[in-house]
Amino acid sequence: MSTTIAQLQYVMACLRDSEFGCAWDKKQDYKSIAPYTLEEAYEVLDAIEREDFEHLKEELGDLLFQVIFYAQMAEEEQRFSFDDVVAGIVEKMLRRHPHVFPDGDIARFGEPTRLTEQQIAEQWQRIKAQEKGASSDSLLDAVPVSMPALMQAVKIQQKVAKVGFDWPDAAPVFAKIREELDELEAAIKEQNRLHVEEEMGDVLFAVSNLARHLNVAPDVALNKTNIKFRRRFGRIEALVSAQNKKLTDCSLEELDRYWDQAKREGL
To answer: Is the keyword Hydrolase assigned to this protein (predicted)?
Structure first.
């Protein structure tokens, strides 16, 4: 018998059953589950980065389970159901892709309007604005403050760029980064911790802005560097261990030589 979404929903309902369910699952709420959702999303990204598709299959299941978990809690409170979640996203995708589904009608698939990627992006933003309607809220209210900081910085910059608050290209961003680095150095000399933190934030914001202008996702780029660092440092550990030594027995100069060797080996 093939496994279905309905079976997964039933498993979740059983786990939350007031009498016979799992004690851990029963006590959870939206906020307690949220950190696990973020963790699962990052594990999906990790599997994609490593091109580990067997692991990706597993992680996508874990992420789907998070959606089922939220929907089950909402249904218990008579707020909405999993079917409502699915219906909502189907309706949204039909509405936001009129070039694929004319007039938002799923039955009319196969009669597409040919648009360029730029036209599609502009259409998407226009439809999103229409959905939200006229509002006096800040332009940046749509950017979640709980979003990871680097991703949030890029989203903020993208929003303000749409109203013309942006540099024309990457060149002046380099000057801005140098300016922020000078201010950070001055703050360090002042030995003012709060000022150092503020200026460090300005540097990171400027660097993320440069990444945006270069069409690079800074969080993805940084994650790749993290992976590369792990790989090279693992090689350092292996080289040190082969000498029957501990990392703490080595000078910085020795560790640097091992690091350079790892680089030469293509790690």
So the answer is: yes
Straight-line distance from the first to the last Cα atom of the chain, in angstroms, rounded to the nearest whole number: 46
Give the Cα separation of 72 and 21 in Å (integer): 13
Whether this model's pTM surpasses 0.70? no
Q: Would you state the structure tokens that stand for residue 3, as one six-digit string?
A: 């496994």
Structure token digits, residue 167 = 């540099």
Q: Token pair for residue 216? A: 């690079």
pLDDT tens-place string over residues 134-181? 554 678 888 888 888 999 999 999 999 989 999 999 999 999 999 999
The span from the CA of 231 to the CA of 251, in Å, is 20
Residue in 124, 137, 139, 134 with CA at minimum distance from that of residue 92: 124
Q: How far is CA 163 from CA 40, 132, 202, in A?
A: 35, 17, 22
DSSP reduced 3-state for 138: coil
Q: Nearest to residue 45, comparing CAs of 267, 227, 208, 205? A: 227
